[in-house]
Design goal:
This protein has about 500 residues and is an alpha+beta fold. The protein has 13 helices and 23 strands. The longest helix is centred in the N-terminal third of the chain and has 21 residues, at about 115-135.
């Protein structure tokens, strides 16, 4: 990108941004350095030259001992190989704990090493606590989320439907819990009462839960469905049966996790036929052929006798009871969390919501290949944790989803030349940039030789107050303007400056 700025040598004169006296000089200088590197077809980011200097070498001519202060490392090396960087700094317990961070405009990756799992967990928790503190000080309400089996923890924000960087999720209005559809579910045990006798009943055409409930006058939570899955790759693939209550949905991510991370999918009709015969819509756990592995969701274990398929076309079984009529190989949390489920923390009903995840961290620190010498001289492995702070979702939550407010924006206008092969567009784009700068606007000119789709995506992500797209109609003096309110309009190029003045001044 071309940024039209008057500049000198940073260390002598500093960086000046006309019209923005409070501009961040360090940020501006880094943009200039990175733009030069890109223009020279070098690495996208600059690196330390360890032949002449390093982060611990003072400009006054002496080296800072590593034991005397904070361990500083090459910013770029952290992202590529934190282990090798840590190995250069850690020899004994005296250098632990040690934390690293690296990032780009969209995310910050953090990791740390500690002598034990407890110390590493404190580091990890400190990372998430810092994110929570940032949110609260900014007037945001952070929520604590969990994913499958609580393997990873995260900090999220509840946002409006359709917000950028958001996904479907669930929140508790009585506490700070949140989660996605694979969040842990803790089933409640319902009293079974007196166990009735197993009874076979005719249910013609009841090959769906809805039709079965209609015929028998029951609710879906009184039914048991048996689903067949294929687990693993084609070589060594296993067809197994999964049991869940009729009002629940089996979650593929949870099922895969319960099976050790193998790939799972619904078994096709041929695979089911080979395993149990042609019984689609009437499958059940009672009387299945030997050798078929049965996995059950925890709600099945805690439910009274249920209505299940009889493995006989047109028939179901009443009062199929756990432990009496069938048994299973394993029980696990296998179903997607749903609105109305009890909150795992306080038990209140949860509600559907849009969530924007802004930070994620490993829940359980693990031993790493990094070794260090303990106080007594014995060698031991350091425990490692990692986390990520997603800058873009956090920034969107602070300034809004649509556009960056003018008072926060590094530039007022983004002039996007759709194609550098269009001479009319290139010429008009440069003319517009000069006119707007003469009016006192900060201008970012996107004259990169990239595909138009890439430029459009970057423009939407950056979210400057106004974007002017100079494209196919440049020869006629027409441009497309993305206004601060999100609307888009075609305007004559001659009147763009006046319009922008009315919008953001």
């Amino acid at each position: 990108m071309t940024v039209r700025r008057v500049m000198g040598i940073e260390t002598e004169y500093g960086i000046s941004v006309p019209g923005h006296p409070n501009a961040n000089a360090m940020l501006t200088s880094s943009q200039i350095v990175n733009a030069y590197a890109a223009a020279m077809h070098r690495a996208r980011r600059t690196r330390w030259d360890f032949e002449e200097e390093n982060p611990l070498r003072d400009a006054r001519g002496f080296d800072l001992a590593r034991e005397a202060g904070i361990q500083m490392v090459d910013f770029n090396e952290i992202a590529s190989d934190s282990l090798s960087v840590a190995a250069r700094y850690v020899k004994s317990y005296r250098q632990l704990p040690l934390s690293f961070a690296s990032g780009n405009p969209r995310r910050i990756d953090a990791c740390g090493f500690a002598a034990g799992a407890g110390e590493a967990a404190l580091q990890r928790d400190g990372f998430l606590d810092t994110v929570r503190k940032i949110c609260r000080e900014a007037g945001l309400s952070p929520r604590d989320g969990r994913t499958i089996e609580e393997e990873r923890s995260y900090v999220a924000l509840a946002v409006d439907k359709g917000s950028w960087h958001s996904k479907e999720g669930f929140v508790c209005r009585s506490c700070d819990w949140c989660g996605d559809d694979a969040a842990p579910v803790y089933p409640t045990v319902r009293p079974s009462g007196e166990e009735a006798h197993l009874e076979e009943v005719e249910t013609p055409g009841a090959d769906t839960i809805a039709e079965l409930c209609r015929q028998l006058g029951i609710t879906p939570d009184r039914t048991l469905k048996t689903l067949f899955y294929a687990a693993g790759q084609e070589t060594g693939k296993e067809v197994l049966a999964v049991l869940a209550r009729g009002d629940h949905q089996v979650n593929d991510r949870k099922l895969s996790h319960a099976l050790g991370g193998v790939v799972v999918r619904f078994a096709d009709p041929l695979e089911i036929r080979e395993a149990v015969g042609d019984l689609a819509g009437y499958l059940g756990p009672v009387g299945l052929p030997p050798g078929i592995r049965l996995l059950a969701d925890g709600h099945v274990e805690g439910s009274p006798c249920l209505v299940a398929g009889a493995n006989k076309p047109g028939f179901h079984l009443l009062n199929a009871c756990w432990g009496r009529d069938y048994g299973v190989s394993a029980v696990a949390d296998l179903v997607s969390i749903q609105e109305g489920f009890p909150c795992p923390l306080c038990g209140s009903p949860i509600v559907a919501s849009q969530l924007r995840s802004i930070a994620v961290a490993m829940t359980d620190p693990e031993p790493s290949p990094l070794t260090f010498q303990r106080e007594g001289g014995a060698l031991s492995r350091a425990h490692r944790w990692e986390g990520t702070l997603c800058v873009t979702p956090l920034a969107l939550s602070l300034v809004g989803d649509e556009k960056i407010p003018p008072r926060f924006a590094p530039f007022d206008v983004n002039i996007l030349i759709a194609s550098m092969r269009n001479d009319d567009a290139v010429g008009l784009g440069n003319v517009l940039a000069e006119r707007l700068e003469e009016r006192g606007f900060g201008v970012l000119l996107d004259d990169r030789d990239e595909r138009a789709g890439v430029k459009f995506s970057d423009a939407e992500l950056v979210g400057l107050p106004v974007t002017v797209v100079v494209g196919r109609e440049a020869s006629e003096g027409i441009v497309e303007v993305w206004k601060p309110d999100g609307a888009r309009e075609e305007l004559p190029a001659d009147g763009v400056a006046d319009q922008i003045s009315r919008w953001i001044r």
